[in-house]
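Researcher: Let's do a round of design. I'm pasting the structure tokens now; please hold your answer until I've finished.
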């Protein structure tokens, strides 16, 4: 028997369109975020009168629809007018001023970027954007190192009619922002609330209907996925569970997903959490390797080993990101009158906690 002889054929798959289970998939309707969408739109509306819009700081926990709601507004804006240019940059992927401005060049169709400095590209971008208005979304903005924050100053000074939207899980990001930049931006603050139990179920039902053939995902299965998702307060977990439960059922050559398949998918959640390491950028992976080799050292010692040329504040923020991803844990220790942070590789959580 060949390795693939028992595989279900494409017309036998339980999945209709599993792209709908991607975290960055934008459904035709974004449910339960109408108030947040209205608030984002209100900040943009002055641009329709050729006035500068309001800047906005969007915060809230991971996996609660901040990016999805914002991209939906940009999508509708693009359909409404050609006079306002929507721009979206993920600062986890574009983690320097030059990468950000190069990404914007690609979005506005400016191709002559080779051998040009960040300042030169900023001038070219400003020349294009200042002929119209624009909305600039900087997602995961807290991932930018301090040396890249100058791009925010350039946006505030060099682009005339704009709305700048920051998205981050870090509620304290603004407190670290340079006062000169903050005073020019003066963003309004929009905090996304966590989805309640019924909303969590409704969103997962919508995605399930997009992703699976009708009737293959039973109501008890969906309820079980929704309960685990609500418990962990992260919609990305629910999307992962829907996909993994479908994969488990298909591997067993089933024509329907059963509760035992969902339970098996939930049992693998620790692997899903550990998989977050793959999403780290090169610098964060490098830092994680150093922590693994020097587990138990203080944060100041690790700062010297990693790169003392970056600010300790930026370094501390990177440590916080790794801790939130459950890849390290930080222990506070008092040595006499001195308090120091000891950094350990791995999470304090046991795999069974997931």
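Researcher: That's everything. Go ahead.
Model: Designed sequence:
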């Amino acid at each position: 028997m060949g390795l693939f002889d028992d595989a279900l054929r494409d017309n036998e798959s339980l999945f209709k369109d599993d792209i709908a289970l991607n975290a960055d998939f934008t459904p035709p309707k974004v449910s339960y975020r109408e108030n947040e969408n209205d608030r984002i739109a209100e900040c943009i509306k002055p641009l329709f009168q050729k006035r500068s819009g309001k800047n906005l700081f969007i915060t809230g926990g991971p996996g609660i629809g901040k990016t999805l709601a914002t991209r939906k507004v940009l999508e509708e804006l693009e359909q409404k007018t050609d006079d306002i240019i929507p721009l979206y940059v993920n600062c986890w992927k574009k983690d320097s001023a030059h990468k950000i401005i190069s990404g914007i060049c690609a979005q506005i169709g400016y191709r002559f970027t080779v051998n040009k400095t960040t300042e030169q590209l900023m001038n070219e971008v400003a020349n294009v954007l200042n002929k119209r208005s624009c909305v600039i979304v900087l997602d995961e903005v807290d991932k930018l190192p301090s040396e890249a924050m100058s791009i925010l100053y350039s946006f505030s000074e060099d682009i005339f009619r704009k709305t700048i939207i920051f998205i981050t899980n870090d509620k304290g990001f603004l407190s670290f922002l340079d006062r000169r930049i903050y005073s020019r931006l003066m963003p309004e603050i929009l905090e996304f609330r966590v989805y309640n139990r019924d909303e969590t179920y409704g969103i997962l039902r919508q995605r399930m209907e997009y992703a699976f053939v009708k009737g293959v995902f039973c109501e008890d299965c969906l309820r079980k996925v929704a309960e685990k998702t609500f418990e962990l307060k992260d919609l990305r977990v629910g999307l992962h569970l829907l996909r993994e439960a479908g994969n488990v059922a298909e591997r067993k050559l089933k024509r329907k997903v059963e509760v035992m398949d969902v339970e098996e998918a939930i049992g693998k959640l620790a692997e899903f959490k550990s998989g977050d390491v793959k999403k780290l950028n090169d610098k964060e992976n490098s830092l994680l390797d150093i922590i693994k080799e020097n587990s138990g050292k203080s944060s100041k010692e690790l700062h010297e080993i990693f790169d003392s040329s970056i600010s300790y504040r930026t370094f501390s923020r990177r440590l916080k990101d790794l801790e939130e991803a459950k890849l390290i844990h930080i222990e506070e220790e008092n040595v006499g009158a001195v308090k120091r942070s000891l950094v350990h590789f791995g999470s304090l959580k046991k795999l069974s906690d997931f």
